Amino acid sequence: MILDPGFDRWVWLGFFGLLVVLGVRAWVVESSRGRLTRTPGRVRALTGASVVMVAVVLSLMWVQGGQQVINAVVNRVDPVTGLPLDQPAAPVVAPVVDPNAPVDEHGAPLPAPAGPAANP
Amino acid sequence: MTTQDTRRDADSSRDSPRAAVPDSEATQVMAVGAQDLADPPTTALPIIPPPPVEDPAPPTWVERNRPTIDRWLSPALAVLALAMLPLAVATTDLAALDGWGLAKVLGAPAWLALLFAIGACLSELYAKRPRIPMLGAATAVLILCSTGLPSVIQPAARFGTAWTITGFVDAVAVANGVPPQGLDARFSWPAFFAQWAWFREAAGADQLDVVLRWFPAAVVAVWAIGIYALARSMLGGSRAPWAAAWLFVGLNWIEQDYFSPQATGICLLLTVLTFALGPLATRRTDASGVPGWPAPHVGAKRLPLWHRWVVSAMTPPNRPTLPPRQLLLVYFCAALCILAVIPAHQLTPFAILGQLALLALVGRYRGRGLVLIGILGVLVFILIAARPIWTTQIGLFIGDGNTGAALEAGVADRLTGDFGQQIVKYGRFLVAALSYGLGFLGAIIYWRRRRDLVPIGLAVVPMGFAAQGYGGEGFLRILLFGLPILTILGTDLLRFLVRWRGWMKPVLAVGMVALFAMLIFLRGGNDSYQVVYPRDAEMYRQVVATTPPGQNVMPLSDPGPFAIEGLTMYGRGGGIEGCGRIAPATDKIGCIAQINPDVIVNFGSIEAQGVYLYLNKPGWSLDLANTLIAQGTYYMWFQDPTDPYDFVLRKTGAPVIDSATQGRPG
Question: What is the complex's ipTM, to 2 decimals?
Fold first, then answer.
């Protein structure tokens, strides 16, 4: 997985743009006095702009890691390596230990004595 | 009197001499009307003479002095409660703490302070005209004498986790506001640490010990304000909201009010909920006749459920009765709270959004865009700002789905310790059950009164955290996020009981005393190993000042003010199975040999935790230190003369620098 951190700023900008559009829409909706009339055109335009901005932010998030996270959550795999999360660890092969080897006072095996010198 | 109204004013009939004489005029008119309608003639009933009026009993002393009592009793009791606190400090022997916790060692003045504080609250509540400022002051005194009692009695902030978090703040402060990476998952939600680092820098302080000490009492006071505001919206009335705030304080044994992100998060959660259920609250249907979707014809077949859901979802909620500018200001503040909590805490945003989504689904507030803002905010933050977390610890988000194991870790594994500890923990379990019992019974009353089951849904939403891999503390959070609504519903039940049976008032007053005594017992249950002394913090700061960076500094267990400075400078060893904490480990010497720390730090609280929670024999930590010294691997670098269990061991041969030349980074 290769993500460009420099592209993150576009996600932040998209999100802040969405906040601005939603704020403007809230202003227009709440300050309009018509209660039972048809939705004003500018409110509908701002609703459309909000939908577009949500789509833009979701697309940017999909590119900047959303795809990997969804894949990891749905398939329970590691988002970086793609390996299953529940994969059991590889069995550890126990070292061959002489049960009669000497141990120190804490039970730890003492280092093996030096072997005989190699034949010249 | 009209011709149709044959009722007679009872008082006038009793007092007037005409009462004994039949009202011939009225009878005449009625008789004419009866003839017209061909009804049987009216029969005059015989007048029963009223019983002889007895002289009213002379007013009692309380009745005669009621205005004076109402004015002065509550302030006097509040002042008495405050006056007891210095005596409580003097008569409490913290050195005698054991597995039964703080309640066992408290002096009589501490209990009297609590009693007076409760009396101040109740006397004002039962006054003819309760004064809001006095109720607020009495509530503050109650919080100080219950939740804040450890802050008053103990010389420093209790709870090791609070000290750990101040270490996080220190790490952010010394790095000029940049949280360290790869050290702790909590640094991926750094807003709380950055906020306090900024406060610390702005105040010119280099530690937050005093803030830590008084934080629980202050933050619970803020929570109580939130509960009061929420209860005013949900219950109405002038007394029930205060009772709800007191019930919340009394049931809050959870101790998530220490210096922590979640404590701030609850403040923001309550703010958002208060907005949603207060000024933004509305309904889709409007009894005043504003047209919405047409009502079905009489006798028509009922629409399918999904059709009703679609109709309901597409019907816009009514506009609250607020001016547009105020409405927009509330939207802005609510959005700000949601956006502020997202980078501060992992779970709180999900609790807020879950509860808001439920309210939006049933059309209970205006401003459904808040849910959209919150969901997208959480997603953007996790994907971009918390990228190191999901790339390395995706399991935190998806959990393991093993609710049984989480339940075991959250509940069963905590029921350990000596007899006192077990009683404390079973008591917590019982009070949690009491909270849910009160909440669900209150939901029935709320349903009977308002035909509304949504509030209990708000308490159920946080239970979704049970499936998340957050660890054992997840269950504490479930209770914490649900507790505000549970207490408000419980208050509705208590109000119903008082209205149903007047004699319940004194019973509930006694119940309040019992609840707050239980609160002190449960909250202080771990104080034998949560108490911290200033000398402990001073000792650790000396360790930081004299230990070269890069060494492994390790405590024998969690309690105490460990890692309050130099978090990024030292390792802690660890990573060895069965040796996460030395205190409960079966082979303590073997664990230390494997971890091989350069410095070993111990506090008196760690010794107490080993004795009362892990059932080690008394003096185990000092025995361990003597064994290590006898082996020649460590030497005693410092031992506090007043507490032999406050000591620091250093590895033989490990370098130590002169504290006079050591400067703190940053």
Answer: 0.79
